From TrEMBL:
Domain Enoyl reductase (ER) stretches: 11-276
Family: Belongs to the zinc-containing alcohol dehydrogenase family. Quinone oxidoreductase subfamily.
Keyword set includes Metal-binding: no
Keyword tags: NADP, Oxidoreductase
Protein name: Quinone oxidoreductase
A single MF term (Gene Ontology): zinc ion binding
CDD domains: QOR2
GO cellular component assignments: cytosol
NADP as UniProt keyword: yes
Domain of life of the native organism: Eukaryota
Length: 278
């Protein structure tokens, strides 16, 4: 038996229950991962509320984590027992748990000089930034990019990575404190969206620059194949290990307090990355 946070119905944070679950042995193509840290992301809220339905109920949510492989099923070649791994897995979710059985192809080896906590905090957010600024639209030095929620987990990684590429960064934020945080991570022009019209400010800063590129991309569409996943994770690991992007964990909650973590996330009380610890 392991502990997991599962939802028995869709709804508010109160539907998240910390309880015992029984894990099956890993089947063909699967691995058993013992979590050391678990990532918290806004997509978890969408699963909890039912906006993005889970396969069945009860079900543990959570798309991101880091830990150690304890066992693998038949035919697994991507990972082996004892390997340090991290993931931002495609659906179905299931990360809010002490351990889980999952597709081995969703796991990547975590470099020894990146902690489990960093791994759990960076995979979904960091690979999201990677595909947006390297593949959806390859950002070039000298270009200007608008980043919404610049003081959030994705925002802080994106601001740093964009500065590393030589871009000018405009970022929307909700408070003076968040503006200072974004600025410290590479945002050249924090814009207070509660008191300023960010569209007008962008036009002022860029002297009328516009964009004709509109898309609705998803991480799992860009990382649909094993080579794409490995390339995306590898690029993320490289910028983190070089020091160009710092993964800063500003909030840590015990797994048992996942409901409170959701309350704080939805109330915009969090900045940077947040993790849950088993």
């Amino acid at each position: 038996m392991v502990k997991a946070v599962r939802m028995h119905e869709a709804g508010g944070p109160e539907v998240l229950h910390y309880e015992d679950v029984t894990l099956p042995d890993p089947g063909p193509g699967e691995a058993l991962v013992r979590h050391e840290a678990i990532g918290l992301n806004y997509i978890d809220v969408y699963h909890r509320t039912g906006l993005y339905p889970v396969p069945s109920l009860p079900w543990p949510i959570g798309m991101e984590g880091a830990g150690v492989v304890e066992a693998v099923g038949e035919g697994v070649t991507e990972v082996s027992a004892g390997m340090r791994v991290a993931y931002a897995s495609p659906p179905p979710p299931g990360g809010y748990s002490e351990a889980r059985v999952m597709p081995a192809g969703s796991l990547v080896e975590l470099p020894a000089d990146i902690s489990f906590e960093q791994g759990a905090a960076m995979m979904l957010q960091g690979m999201t930034v990677e595909y947006l600024i390297r593949r959806t639209y390859p950002v070039k030095a000298g270009e200007t990019v608008l980043v919404h929620a610049a003081a959030g987990g994705v925002g802080l990684i994106q601001c740093q990575w964009l500065k590393h590429l030589g871009a000018t960064v405009i970022g929307t934020v909700g408070s003076e404190e968040k503006a200072a945080l974004a600025r410290a991570h590479g945002c050249d022009h924090p814009v207070m969206y509660r008191t300023e019209d960010f569209a007008e400010r962008v036009m002022e800063i860029t002297e009328g620059q516009g964009s004709a590129y509109i898309t609705r991309p998803t991480l799992f569409g860009y990382n649909a194949t094993r080579p794409e996943l490995e390339e995306s994770a590898g690029a993320l690991f490289d910028v983190v290990r070089s020091g160009a992007v710092r993964i800063e964990i500003h909030q840590t909650y015990p797994l048992a307090e996942a409901a409170q973590a959701h309350r704080d996330l939805e109330a915009r009380k969090t900045t940077g990355s947040t993790i849950l610890t088993p």
